[in-house]
Structures are given as C-alpha cells and as structure tokens.
Amino acid sequence: MHDYVRSVHEGAQYKYEPDLALLAEIDHEIVGHIMSTNTYINTPKGKVGNVLHLAPLAVLLNMRKQGIGRQLMNASIEAARAKGYRAIFLAGNPVYYSRLGYVPSYKHNIYYAEAEQLAKEVGTSSEHIKECIMVYELFPDALKGIEGNIVLL
Ligand SMILES: CC(C)(COP(=O)(O)OP(=O)(O)OC[C@H]1O[C@@H](n2cnc3c(N)ncnc32)[C@H](O)[C@@H]1OP(=O)(O)O)[C@@H](O)C(=O)NCCC(=O)NCCS
C-alpha cells in the first residue's frame, strides 16, 4: 500500500488530489488515512472527467470498528462534492461499501475493462470483480447518459 501511495504522489501521470487526502487523528496520533486520485471514464464520445478513484482507505488495526472508516468515507464525499466532482469510483468489498451508499458501477452502465485480468490476479471470478467496482454519485443523475469504462489507476 505504501508503494501505491508513493507512486500516486510521485507519478507525473497521476493527478493526485491533495484536498482529498485526509487523515483521522486521535490525540495527535494518525489513526486513519484516505485519498483519491483524479481519473476519467472512457466513453464512445470521448473522455468524461471530474471523477475520482478512491484508494486507499486504511484504519489502524487496533482502532477499527469504531466508525473511523465511515467518517473518513463521509468526509471524502463532502470534500469531493465541494470540489465539484461528479462521482467517486473504487474497487472494494461490496458488503462494506454498499452500507456507505456505493453501488456497483455496472448499474450505471459503467464497467472496468480490466475486470477479467484483475479477477485472475486475485483468484476470483470476473462476476465477483464486477460487483466490487463501485461508484457513488455526488449529485442526482451525475452519471445519467454516461456509459463506458472507468479507468482505475
Ligand atoms: C476497511 C477499514 C478501513 C474499515 O475501517 P473501520 O474504521 O473499521 O470502519 P468502520 O468502523 O466505519 O466500519 C466497520 C464495519 O465494517 C466492517 N468491515 C470492515 N472491513 C470490511 C470488509 N473488508 N468487508 C466487509 N465488512 C468490513 C466491519 O466488520 C464493521 O462491521 P460492524 O460495524 O457490523 O461491526 C479497515 O478495516 C481497514 O483499514 N482495513 C484494511 C485496509 C482495507 O481493507 N481497506 C479497504 C480496501 S478496499
């Protein structure tokens, strides 16, 4: 995970969004972290931007199950909305993220082109990966009329 964060910070090809890198602190100790990176949807009409790829989200092992993850997720939604983004995409456990309002992106006709390859890498089915590529719309109908493939970094 550290390698991922470093590559997003340092990689010139990624548009890391500093205002959406948030820390959770308790008594001056960092107990959680969330960040998002600017990305786009490839559509037949061209690229549609103003969308984010949220990753990673992490909470210290001994501080989990106290709502810190949920607070970080909610804070990132508010911050992304305030910055005028359209939607937040992520690849994650649907059980956890559906409770936070995320839905599988295929419900909006938006797919992940590399689902099959990712399924092989993590040893699951591409059907399962399809459920794990999720999205949160930041305003009503934010994805209406947009169909294509989300680019995850
Ligand atoms: C996922 C994570 C950030 C949640 O943080 P947290 O502060 O414990 O989250 P919350 O307190 O808001 O929510 C905890 C609830 O989510 C559930 N949960 C946590 N991880 C889950 C997972 N991978 N799948 C399903 N449910 C999960 C917990 O069981 C708990 O459920 P409960 O409230 O019914 O007991 C934390 O477990 C973590 O850092 N995990 C390792 C990194 C990781 O997997 N990040 C997500 C990558 S997709």
Jot down its keywords:
9-stranded mixed β-sheet, 35% strand, binds coenzyme A, 153 residues, alpha+beta
Number of strands: 9
CATH topology: Aminopeptidase
The major pleated sheet works out as: 9 strands, mixed
Indicate the percent of residues in helices. Answer: 25-40%
Kindly name the structural category: alpha+beta
What would the average pLDDT be, to the nearest integer?
Answer: 92
Give the end-to-end Cα distance, rounded to a whole number of Å.
13 Å
Count of distinct structural domains: 1
Element pattern in H and E: HEEEEHEHEEHHEE
Total helices: the number is 5
Report what the structure shows.
The chain has a single domain (2-150), classed as Aminopeptidase. It has five helices and nine strands; from the N terminus they run H-E-E-E-E-H-E-H-E-E-H-H-E-E. The chain has helices spanning 2-10, 68-82, 94-98, 115-122, 126-132; strands at 15-16, 22-26, 29-43, 46-59, 87-91, 103-104, 110-111, 133-137, 148-150. Helix 4 (115-122) crosses helix 5 (126-132). It is globular, with a radius of gyration of 15 Å. The structure holds coenzyme A (COA).
